Amino acid sequence: MKTIMDLRKDLDEKKVTSDELFNEAIDKAHKYQEEFNSFVTIMDKKEENESNSLISGIPYALKDNFSTKGILTTASSNILKDYVPVYDSTAYKKLKDAGAVLVGKTVLDELAMGGTGTTGHTGIVRNPWDKNREIGGSSAGSAASVALGIVPFSIGSDTGDSIRKPAAFGGVVGFKPTYGRISRYGLFAFASSLDHVGCFARCVRDAAIVTDILKGQDERDMTSLPDEDIKYTDVIDNDIKGKKLFYIKEITDKTLYKDAGEETLEILDKFKETVEECKKLGFIVEEVSFDEKLLKAIYPSYMTISSSEATSNNSNLTGIPFGPRGEGGSINEIMFDARTKGFSELIKRRFILGSYILQRENQERLFKNAGRLRHLIVDKMNELYKTYDAMILPASGGVAPKFDNEIDRMSDRYLILENHMAIGNFGGFPSITIPNGFVNGMPIGINITGRVFEDALTLNIANKIEEALGYKGLIKEEYDV
Amino acid sequence: MYKVTIGLEVHCEVKTNSKNFSSARNTYSEYPNENIDTTDLGLPGILPVANKEAFKKSLKMALALNCKTPDVVMFDRKNYYYPDLPKGYQITQETKPVGVNGYVMINVNGEDKKILINNIHLEEDTASLDHFGTYSLIDYNRAGVPLLETVTEPCMHSVEEALTFLETLKGIFLYTDVSEARTDRGQMRCDVNISLMEEDAKELGTKVEMKNINSFNNVKLAIEYEIKRQTEILKSGGKVLQETRRFDDEDLKTYPMRSKVDAVDYKYYIEPNIPPIKITDEWIEEIKSEIPMLQFERVEKYMKDYGLSRYDSDIIVKDKNVSDYFEETISLGVNPKSSANFITSIILGYLNKHELSITDFYLTPQMLCDLIKMVDSGKISSKQSKEVFFKCLEENKEPGVVVKELGITQVTDDKTIRDIVVKLLDERPDLIEDHRKGKNTFDYFVGQVMKETRGKANPGITANIIREEMEKR
Lengths: 481, 473
Hints:
The complex is a heterodimer.
Chain A: H1 4-12, H2 18-36, E1 39-42, E2 59-63, H3 90-97, E3 101-106, E4 126-127, E5 130-134, H4 140-147, E6 153-158, H5 164-170, E7 173-176, E8 196-201, H6 204-214, H7 232-235, E9 244-248, H8 249-252, H9 262-281, E10 284-288, H10 292-313, H11 331-342, H12 345-358, H13 360-384, E11 390-394, H14 415-419, H15 422-427, E12 431-439, E13 442-450, H16 455-469
Parallel strand pairs in A: 2-3, 2-6, 9-10, 9-11
Antiparallel strand pairs in A: 1-3, 4-5, 6-8, 7-8, 7-12, 11-13, 12-13
Helix pairs in contact in A: 6-16, 9-16, 10-12, 10-13
Chain B: E1 2-13, H1 52-64, E2 72-73, E3 76-79, E4 89-92, E5 99-108, E6 111-124, E7 128-131, E8 136-139, E9 146-152, H2 159-176, E10 188-198, E11 208-213, H3 216-235, E12 243-248, E13 253-259, E14 269-270, E15 277-278, H4 281-289, H5 295-306, H6 310-317, H7 320-331, H8 336-353, H9 365-376, H10 382-395, H11 399-406, H12 414-427, H13 429-436, H14 442-452, H15 459-472
Parallel strand pairs in B: 11-12
Antiparallel strand pairs in B: 1-9, 1-10, 2-15, 3-4, 3-14, 5-6, 6-9, 7-8, 10-11, 12-13
Helix pairs in contact in B: 2-3, 5-6, 6-8, 7-8, 7-9, 9-10, 12-14, 12-15, 14-15
């Protein structure tokens, strides 16, 4: 499958026009829509904004929780099913200004809450490698659209691992840079202190190209970072000899998984093979020990913080200034009715949880303690980053799950192995998932999480490992597993 | 009689170019939904951007109220559902207000009193709702306007104290240029907490809160009504309920809104979209240097240094511009009492009548200085100075020019006056005789001199000459 650089070359050499690329993408989008359901909206008209950027004329897909002026934006929720924004998110605007061509708005787990890709109001998203499996979420359609070869890259958001997990399940690259590197303005907020904008691509270089376009300080986002005087694409080929990586014993040691199935053990084996591969490349890779109690606290802390912030962030969805108006005799009844009809059961459950956690009598014990755990985990990571340049871990304890698994309940069996990527959100660390081969015919991924602000080095490390592994531009119709 | 205890929470809109967290204009508008943007409507994906001008002005107010300021500016969310709150939460300050533990000096009936400030915090105003028979309309112009809330300790014990505090606070807002504090535009609103207890009781009585009272007069009426209502309850052996009440400005009574059990849990937590902004010492010094001397200190100075009455001083400091004008005339060398008299007896009346601000006033401090000096030196009489004053304003001419044009310079020439006096005394020897017998005929001669000179004779010089000439005879 062609990368952004391949397409750029074709366009520059006039072997193809951007109209042809757009039409081809639209055709594929329609072709796969019924089967895989990547999109909420497929564009019927090409946006004409040319520039001299690397992505000018190249098609992409955008998660349906980015505000796009004049284009339906639903966040895959009934409460926004007819919502047409009046303003552009910064990410979308930057892509438009760079001349990238929007193919469609992709399905997500409702309001970006969830990791299965099954809770959007327009139906479930299926895994391109096996229709009976999830692609994961919440950036489900964005992952699927790249994995299906519809677009070379897509934009997602990542609050727990919403880009990096589906990237692993779809056999593509998923990157979220440092918190604040890309403006969140116009991204429908889930949990503001954890929300990141990021991208899916077919290779690390493409992820770097897209991030180069998206990054930068935004006066509309006070948490956005000052501009860097660096282009990631310029540094991803740097020599990495002597760079130090670590992996966590409490997550990767096979002896801890006595009851685990073959699949998990195979994933762990594959991971260790990759570690050896890294050593051959010149990395120093070491095993470190991480307090298991802290690791076990990742998931509950994440749920506690994210549900609380989500409750508050989504309080604007009342059907009063916008959205479907509820019915009732009083203003409270009207809002109550709109929210009752507008949200699915799972969302309501999270809101009730969040509301309970934020109650005065529970805040100290739940909300603030979760925040303290978050700090302890980040402190420990920062301590490790004094010695190491990045952490490397398996992205998941299994391949993409089948649909019969219970929804919105992450596996208790591999609690830590399944949920450690939220560390990247806790600390705002740059974090990337790249393909690490196949288990049982399904793609698996490894995750590399770097020091805060060191997006360049993180991409550099990932690029070198990707080169060595050779899993690049995977899509099912071209790849014989 | 019971002892009354009052605490106030005063909301005041901060004067800024744009809103607290959006770039929409912060200006009063007659047209609904004119000054709004995506942030003010709480549309999905919006982010707040803190207005530096707003929190600098808030810090200024905090310092003017002698508050301790925090190390950083930071905000919290106050979560609740109401149609006038588009985001479903209000951005406010709970963890670190811009000021805590301050005080304001007030003077009630000649007695100084310290009013304690618990805290002052910056938040955003809500939209305004207009209720009609079967429907309500929302105007988002006000949504997101920076709002400073000043919370006092329960330390006031009478209506007078509460109102004097409010007037003083309003004055400080105007003096510091933090707010226009116009109650007629809803820029200043007030919650009143009030409780009654036995004179010798050790603990405060049960608190009743009255929300959102929109004028000082209504604050007065609401407090008076509550004192009466609670007194009656206590006298008849009843118990005052802890509740929030609403003041109805039509029948001037208060009505229950919600009881303590219905109190809302606002689930405050730190606003994640605004990183803490460090407040530097340089910043504080810069802001401090921008705070002018306030009314309380000015009154003390006017009384002590200039010998003015409290009454006149109070009138002058009421408007900072008037007070500044007054001080400028003094710096130009005018006698403070003369200047104060002219301002309180003539200028303020004129400004009031013509609905003018002293800043739009033709007569500059220098011109007033010239005018008063002409009176003090006897060049014109004080009566003439009024005539000159009005002529100056009518024709936009300086006092010196007007005096010359009107030819109303006083006759101070000794010989001219003496000739007239001699002539008059010669004509009425009978009156000189009467004068010697103790009858007052002196004023008659003064009047005649004025008549002959068409009022231009200097009264002091005239009196002296008459006295001298009479004695000669």
